[in-house]
Amino acid sequence: MTSRKTSENAILLSPMVAFLLAILGFPVVLSLVYGFSETTFQTLTSPSFSGLENFRDVMNDAAFWKAAWFSLKFGVITATLQCVLGLAIAVYLAPLVRQHGWTVAILIIPMIVAPAMMGLMYRLVLHEFAGPIPHYFYSWLGWSPSFLGPANVFSTVVVAETLQWTPFAFLLFLTAYNQIPTEMKEAAAVDGTRPWRRFLKIEFPLMVPTVFVALFIRFIDGFRVFDNIYTLVGAGPGGATTSMSIYIYETFLRRGEIGKAMAAAILLFLAAFLLLTLAQRLVGRRAS
Does domain 57-287 have CATH number 1.20.120.80? Predict the structure, then answer.
């Protein structure tokens, strides 16, 4: 009976599985073909096999390694800042949220705005000549910093990313914090445990799995960042804010090197796959 039911479920699911394989599989196969071929817009329908030539070109491109270093540094810094701030806000505002649940809707507003629109907004308010923030800095302090200049552009994009996506970490940590049994908190309070010690010894250890998940998700999102940085400052002065996604985009559309762009995309996918595999193993070991 069980085997019959399993076969029936497989038959019912087969059309959806076939549809997903067709929709998702075709771009993957096409990317692999272009990645191992010499392809431009002129030879898009008739690529010529070139082996690992595109991968060698990518690995020998200093701009690729610069973009990889930017993405790695940006992902680590933004993920850390978002998780630290999100955890602090979640713990501090948890009592307020229990009484007034509508406050969550206000706190997550930055996350709702499209990243491209957020980038355009920051570009407007931080513009060196027309932006209100540099204007008031100069009017009040006699100092007009170039937020999008070479010296400050990295800090600017980090702050913009952190402000937009800290609410995501806040939601995860608020949910995890509210799942901690109230009896444990009350027992610790009765024993005279100070709030900060109760958090470090009791509450935070129970939230560690959520912290790990939040760090991983935000790092992956920061590593592949594109839209908000590209609309804010593009590749940046001297390519200072060229992430891996921006590098692939410009290689593909600006220079027309489709094979090289696909090779870089394949390398990016392999790096993400390895990180995901490593994260799953670490979570599995902790669970066991």
Answer: no
